[in-house]
Specification:
Elements lengths: L54 E3 L4 E3 L3 H4 L1 H9 L16 E7 L2 E7 L3 E5 L6 H13 L29 E8 L8 H6 L5 E2 L6 E12 L4 E9 L13 H10 L2 E4 L5 H4 L7 H6 L5 H21 L1 H10 L1 H6 L16 H5 L5 E2 L8 E2 L5 H23 L7 E5 L7 H13 L3 E6 L2 H4 L7 E7 L2 E5 L5 E3 L7 H6 L5 E4 L4 E4 L5 H10 L6 H15 L5 H13 L9 E5 L2 H13 L9 E5 L6 H15 L1
Length: about 625
């Protein structure tokens, strides 16, 4: 059976006009806003029929649909069509921007930034799956119901404490933040206004959710808790703390998890999360349904009459009704064809032909690589065709995908990155494949490693932060920095978006002088300044990515790099190591010959810059 799907086209939406907020709509006591927020920013973005971003005017408290000049041509087109929930371009739906994990499995502490696509790499048992599982537990469990949440195996054990009941609580904090102000659709603001926080400086909206778990002696079990937070990381009260808000929130952020071992038989069954729901959306017109039933009945009767054995079998089964029936006589018959059209649809399967002249075969009869890829493209069809019907039109899917390169040959693994980026929604991917990594931008990579204190996560950051209080003296320094220095009032952190020059570093030290906590603040500034000197610009990254493609992504999995001049030295080093009984692979040493990959100076500088990410 073959199905052809076509997406809905050109959905029109009425954008509406500017509407002032009435006094009744303002609630100065709303717990979702910080007490430090400028009164001009104390507003609520009212829900309108339009789902594109809006211009917010703090003084007049009105909002207008942005013009094409304000929104940009791509966004203006999306606004005119009413299209939402499709990533960063133009109007965007909510995505995970940050994940903080404490005391969960192998992770003592981790703070991870996420983008539209984030790739987690690392050795076996480094903690990649634990990160995906933390997301799944936080965003797919129905909190408040028994049997949900954590077990004793989820508690991180350290400091010689073997009993998880006396360990520190598990804490998973998930943050969702607009990349730019007014990026989220208006309907989302209307539905989730009780939990959305607005940054008083940038105007960007965010949602912060915390899930925790600890042993409760009175309950004699591990008790999970959930709560939404304000910008100061304090729990919300009032309407923002109600369980109904949690369920509404989940409607905007459906999370799907595809394990490394993807079973095509299960994924394409009528009970699966994607295929089964797709089949159930197929609508058969009632006249065709009735006509099909009559045809099935007629064919079934002719098949029974075609062979006396079948007729005798049907007659024998009719005795069931005589034995089982009590007050109401029943009937029994032999059915060789489906009873209705759903019985046919539920048995639908995908068939695949490798090339012309070859037989068409079910997916389960093809190789594991084809089967694995088919599940990913099934997810794509599911999101594009029916996600908005099952959840909300503004929803964006989050796909947690383990090892998509499984069972693929090197060329297919290399081309896989393009297909991953084309999948709808936000993607969080784990991989072991250096071939897959060859085309992944460095800023999308997070290196997961096991260190003495547990799992660590490294990245090439765009920003460097110092937890210091705001003082008026830094405002002039920030204004003169041309965007290099900003201050995050929500987190009380100074933010550096590049390498901090020495003169501006000295100015900051002077600005924080003469305080009781000057020593602590100066230490935080020095740490951020030193880290910022390792900042890698986009131009430098382009050169590094070209270099990495030559030697594949193997460098990210190595703990040490050994530079040699050419192929002969490469083989010599391996021979010496073998003679000494030192297994280079076992110790995580990558031998790289720079003769075929650039000058030793460039190689040395490149690897030095990559050391912040790969080690």
């Amino acid at each position: 059976m073959v199905y052809h799907f076509e997406p809905i086209s050109d959905i029109q939406a009425d954008c509406g006009m500017a509407q002032p907020l009435t006094d009744a709509e303002e609630d100065p006591a709303q717990s979702r806003h910080s007490s430090a927020v400028d009164p001009a920013w104390r507003h609520v973005r009212k829900r309108t029929p339009h789902s594109c971003r809006t211009e917010i005017h703090p003084i007049s408290k009105t909002r207008r649909r942005p013009s094409a000049d304000t929104c940009g041509s791509s966004c203006a087109k999306r606004c005119s069509l009413g299209i939402v929930g499709q990533g960063r371009e133009g109007c965007s739906a909510v995505e995970i921007s940050r994940l903080k994990i404490s005391n969960f499995r192998s992770i003592k502490e981790a703070d991870i930034q996420f983008g539209a696509v984030t790739v987690l790499i690392g050795t076996n048992n480094a903690g990649k799956s634990a990160i995906l599982e933390a997301i799944r537990i936080a965003l797919t469990r129905r909190w408040g119901q028994r049997g949900t949440g954590f077990t004793e195996y989820d508690v991180h054990l350290c400091d010689g404490r073997p009993d998880p009941k006396v360990g520190d609580p598990v804490v998973i904090e998930v943050e969702f933040q607009e990349a730019v102000a007014n990026e989220w659709p208006e309907d989302l603001h209307g539905e989730l206004e009780d939990i959305i926080q607005l940054d008083p400086v940038t105007g960007r909206a965010s949602i912060i959710m915390r899930v925790s778990c600890s042993w409760e002696a009175a309950e004699e079990s591990f008790v999970p808790r959930w709560e939404f937070l304000n910008v100061e990381r304090n729990p919300l009260a009032g309407r923002g703390a109600r369980a109904v808000k949690l369920q509404e929130f989940f409607q905007f952020l459906p999370v799907f998890y595809l394990e490394a071992l993807r079973d095509v038989t299960d994924e394409f069954s009528s009970r699966s999360q994607f295929w089964g729901k797709l089949l159930r959306t197929v609508q058969i017109p009632e006249p065709l349904e009735q006509k099909s039933k009559r045809i099935f009945d007629l064919l079934n009767r002719r098949l029974l009459d075609a062979d006396p054995l079948l007729a005798n079998l049907a007659n024998g089964l009719s005795h069931i009704s005589r034995v089982a029936a009590t007050d109401v006589p029943g009937q029994a018959d032999l059915r060789l064809l489906p009873l209705n059209t759903w019985d046919i649809l539920s048995k639908a399967e995908v068939i695949y032909q490798t090339e012309g002249g070859k037989p068409w075969l079910p997916l389960a009869r093809h190789g594991q690589g084809v089967q694995s890829l088919s599940v990913m493209f099934l997810f794509k069809a599911f999101v594009e065709l029916i996600l908005s019907d099952l959840y909300r039109p503004e929803s964006t899917a989050v796909l947690a995908l383990e090892e998509p390169e499984t069972h693929l040959h090197p060329q297919a693994a290399r081309s896989l990155w393009r297909h991953i980026t084309e999948l709808p929604g936000q993607k969080i991917v784990t991989t072991h494949s250096p071939y897959f990594l060859q085309h992944v931008p460095f800023r999308d990579i997070r290196v997961v490693r096991v260190e003495a204190n547990g799992t660590t996560v490294s990245a090439l950051p765009r920003q460097f932060r110092a937890p210091v209080p705001h003082v008026p003296q830094i405002d002039a320094i920030i204004a003169a920095s041309a965007g290099l220095i900003t201050y995050d009032r929500g987190l009380n952190e100074l933010v550096l978006s590049g390498a901090l020059p020495q003169n501006q570093y000295r100015d900051l030290l002077i600005a924080y002088g003469g305080r009781p906590d000057t020593q602590t603040i100066h230490a935080a500034l020095r740490k951020a300044s030193d880290a910022s000197q390792e900042f890698v610009s986009d131009a430098e990254l382009e050169q590094l990515e070209t270099f990495a493609r030559r030697i594949r992504g193997e460098i990210f999995f190595a703990r040490r790099w050994l530079l040699v001049e050419g192929p002969s030295d490469y083989h010599l080093v391996h021979g010496i190591a073998k003679g000494l009984g030192y297994d280079l692979d076992e110790h995580g040493v990558a031998v790289i010959d720079f003769q075929n990959n650039g000058s030793p100076e460039i190689m040395r500088e490149s690897l030095s810059q990559l050391s912040n990410l790969g080690r």
